[in-house]
Amino acid sequence: MDIYLVKEEGKRRQFLHLQLDRHLLTRIEGIEGLKAVERTTHLGTNEKAKITLQAIVSEYEQKGYYQTKSDIGLNIKPIVFDKADWHYGGDFPADLNAYQAYVHTGFYIGWLLDRKLFTEEFMNENDTSINKFLNREVTSVFFYKDQMDGLFQSNDLRSEAIEFTKYYFNEDFSKSLYIEDYIELLCSHLPTIYHVKDNWENFYTIVKEIDGRFKQWIES
C-alpha cells in the first residue's frame, strides 16, 4: 500500500510518501526537488502497522497535507542500485559480449523474483515474462536485460526488499556484501566477475548464499 501526501509551501511542495508492506512501514519525507529522508520501521504486527499508518495520515492532514493518488508530479527519486551500462567501460573486458555486464545483478534479480519481493504492480505488468523465468524457460539475467533494460532501482521493490538490498547488495559496489559473496563463490578461478557464465548451476549457488544472508538479516 502506498499513500502520498503533499502540502503547498511557496514555490515548492512538501511531501510524505508512506509505504506499508505487512509489518514494515516506510516513510519518505522531504521537499520536492530536494533530497528526501527515508526510514523504515518494523512494527511487529500487520495490524499495528495499519493503525500507525492511519495515525500518521491523520496527523499530517491536520497539518494541512492532502492525499494524492500517485507520485505523478512529485520529484521522488528512486535509489538506482545498478545499471548494466555502468559496467561497459573501465574494467569490462573488451573481448566479452556486453551481455556479461548483466549477469551479476541478473542473478540477484532472479532471487527477488523467486521470493516475490517485487511490487505487485511490477509483477502484474511483467507477469508473462516472470512466469517464463519461474518456469525456467529463460534465465533471470535475460529477464533483467530484456524486461528491465539493465536498470535495477528501488521503486520496483517491496519495502522489505529495499531495506535488505540497501544492506546487502548496496548501490556502492565497493561496500557490497553481495559482490563479496559473488566473487568468493563464483569468481575464484576467473579473470574478472564479468566472466561468470549465465547458467543455472551458478544461479543456484549464489541464491543459496543470498537466502542465508536474508535469513540472518531478518533475525537480526
Q: Helical content, roughly?
A: 40-55%
Quote the distance from N terminus to C terminus: 25 Å
Number of domains: 2
Return the string of H and E elements.
EEEEHEEHHHHEHHH
Task: Give the strand order of the largest sheet, numbering strands 1, 2, ... along the chain.
Answer: 4-3-2-1-5
The share of residues in extended strands comes to: 15-25%
Organism: Pseudochryseolinea flava
Domain DUF7832: 80-196
InterPro entries: DUF7832
Protein name: DUF7832 domain-containing protein
Description:
It is a single chain. By secondary structure, the chain is of the alpha+beta class. It has 2 domains: 2-68, q64v53_bacfr protein fold; 80-219, no CATH class. It is built from 8 helices and 7 strands; from the N terminus they run ββββαββααααβααα. It has helices spanning 46-62, 103-114, 120-125, 127-134, 140-146, 159-168, 177-186, 200-219; strands spanning 2-9, 12-21, 24-31, 37-42, 66-68, 80-83, 151-153. The strands form 2 sheets. The protein has a 5-stranded antiparallel sheet, sandwiched between helices. It has a two-stranded antiparallel sheet with strand order 6-7. Helix 2 (103-114) crosses helix 8 and helix 7 (177-186) runs antiparallel to helix 8 (200-219). It is elongated, with a radius of gyration of 19 Å.
